[in-house]
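seq:
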Amino acid sequence: MVFAVVTGGGTSGHFIPAQAILESLMESGISADELRYVGSRRGVEQSLMVGSAIPAEYLPISGLQRSLSLKGIARNTALPFRLMRSRLMARSLIKKWEPRVVVSVGGYASEPMSAAAIAAGVPLVCVSYDRMPGLATRRQAKHAALSAVAFPGVDLPRAVITGAPVRSSLRHLDVAREREVARRELGVAENAVLLTVMGGSLGSGVLNALVPSLLLECASQTNIHVLHICGKRFVDDPLPTVPTGVTYQRVGYESRMAHVYASSDLLVVRAGASTVAEIVTVGVASVVVPWEVSADGHQKLNAQWLADANAAKVATEADCLNGIAVQMVASLLQHPDDRKVLAQNARSMGIAHRSNLLVDTIKNAAH
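struct:
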């Protein structure tokens, strides 16, 4: 018998929390043989699960395409058939594995296994790590044994505050102890001020467009190192002009995120749920730029949660165009005490994320 099936994916924003939950369950003493992961054949998870000891299955389910291109229309036409096939496969997997609990992190890839668990009477735990839960989570939570939420006041049935799922390497990160080694691994000088700009696994056009102005501003300061994680789809874009006296590194993707967080003095990031959870888990100063068209405005809500506690500075996408965001960053680079306050306030908000509450809740829900 399988102890738990963790389901969800499609994007790194859903897969990374699923991965974090699987890591935490193994840390608690559950072997990889007792766990399963179910995602989508069309998501990022197949490549990111390479080398994992946890058995995985990938369903043909896909998300709704908003594009009116012929390819987008064709994929939407096939969606009902993919959904039906995925549901049949999910029912078969539930029957085969007989899990004691199914854990959903939301997103379109979680729907078939969650529906199969509900139909089979297997306890379902919905994990919500946004201040505004997504549509799939809201639907599933109506029938779930409980909802594990990261924020107080999240309106889901049978909600229990557990903190957000965060990768083990970040939950246990001791920045002071790891900083020297992390900087050496990343090629960052020990005495440099490290500014990291990153927009998630796919990258952010808005943040990438901000980098040339940030580099110019950094030229007026001393010993600034800019690490730009631009996203794989932008990695072949022309390099920006780098002023004399500024060190600039650009990579499409960086897997050593514990090194990045341990090394960074200041982050410029989006306000996705996973990123916000990592900021408060580690305790790092940041300027967050919410994605304007995120579903239900959830990135704005995530960013506001940080801003209300003076745990981050928030810039709008308009601020990235009119120079305000650059000045925010410049001021923080010039004032280490201000960065220290943001980092300390952020870390104080991550207590639940660093705890075992989520794993304990999942175990309590299991048959």
